[in-house]
Design goal:
mainly alpha
Length: 142
């Protein structure tokens, strides 16, 4: 049988708290086996799964979405580089959209902070295209 890692070893290798590893396991994102004493033991490929989870979270995927992605991995063998590449291929568009959104925000910040308008009908940052004004007069954010 291949060497199994303790939860502490996985935590040390991934930089993820043991409580988070237990949580990921409860959510079905990673799996462990129990030894004779009832302690968790992880197969080495779990390290890559945890790295994938962390990266996917940074991209903005929810844990549910991450679980759906991980379910696409082959069940009978540890995933290969090609498997991981296939999973993350669609993320480029998502990251590009996030970058574009942040760039728009950055460009608006100087004008917005400097304008001092505090106007919901003119503020492009708080109320783009006066969306709130279309709902009628009066408070809309309370």
């Amino acid at each position: 049988m291949a060497e199994r890692l303790t939860i502490g070893e996985v935590a040390a290798r991934t930089g993820v708290a043991t409580s988070a590893l237990r949580f990921y396991e409860e959510r079905g994102l990673i799996a462990s086996e129990r030894n004779g004493g009832g302690h968790r033991r992880y197969a080495r490929p779990v390290i890559r799964r945890v790295a994938f989870i962390l990266f996917a979270q940074r991209v903005g995927l929810t844990l549910e979405q991450i679980g759906e992605e991980l379910a696409r991995l082959p069940a009978g063998r540890p995933p290969k580089r090609e498997d991981w590449a296939q999973l993350s291929a669609g993320w480029r568009t998502r990251v590009d959209e996030q970058i574009a959104q942040l760039e728009r925000l950055r460009e608006s910040l100087t004008d917005c902070i400097g304008c001092g308008c505090l106007s919901l009908d003119r503020c492009a940052l708080v109320n783009p295209d006066d969306r709130l004004g279309l709902e009628g007069s009066g408070a809309r954010r309370i």
